[in-house]
Amino acid sequence: MHIQPYLFFEGRCKEALDFYQRALGAEVTMLLRNKESPEPPACPLPPGAEEKILHSSFRIGNSTVYASDGLCQGQPNFQGFSLSLSAPNETEAARLFNTLAEGGQVQMPLGKTFFSPCFGMVTDRFGVAWMIVVVESAG
C-alpha cells in the first residue's frame, strides 16, 4: 500500500510542474490535459480550461506526487499538511529551501534543531508547505 499526495493547483498546475522541475529536479512522468480526456468532465469547467491539466504525476527522488488543475477556480488552497523533503546534507538543504522560498514565504528559517543539524519550513509560491530536513545517520 502507498500514499501519494494529490495537489490541486486550480489553474496553475503547468506553472507548478515547471517550477518543481527546476527547483527540485522533478521528473514529470504523466500529463493529461482536459481536452485529451476520453470522457466529458464530471463538473463544469470554465471557458479555456481545455488546455488545463486533468491529471499528472511527477517524481521527486523516489516519491511520486500527483497534480491537477482541479476545477480551475484560480486560487489553490493547501492547508493542514506539509510535504517533508529530506536532503543529504546542509548545502543541499539550503539550496532546496532557498529555491522553494523564491516567491514564497519562510515559516521557519533553516537551523539546527534537537532532531536535525538543519531543518526549516517554507511555503512555496503556490501555497504548498514544505519541511526541509537533513536526517542525521545513526552512525
From TrEMBL:
<dbReference type="InterPro" id="IPR029068">
    <property type="entry name" value="Glyas_Bleomycin-R_OHBP_Dase"/>
</dbReference>
<dbReference type="Pfam" id="PF06983">
    <property type="entry name" value="3-dmu-9_3-mt"/>
</dbReference>
<protein>
    <submittedName>
        <fullName>PhnB protein</fullName>
    </submittedName>
</protein>
<dbReference type="InterPro" id="IPR028973">
    <property type="entry name" value="PhnB-like"/>
</dbReference>
<feature type="domain" description="PhnB-like">
    <location>
        <begin position="3"/>
        <end position="133"/>
    </location>
</feature>
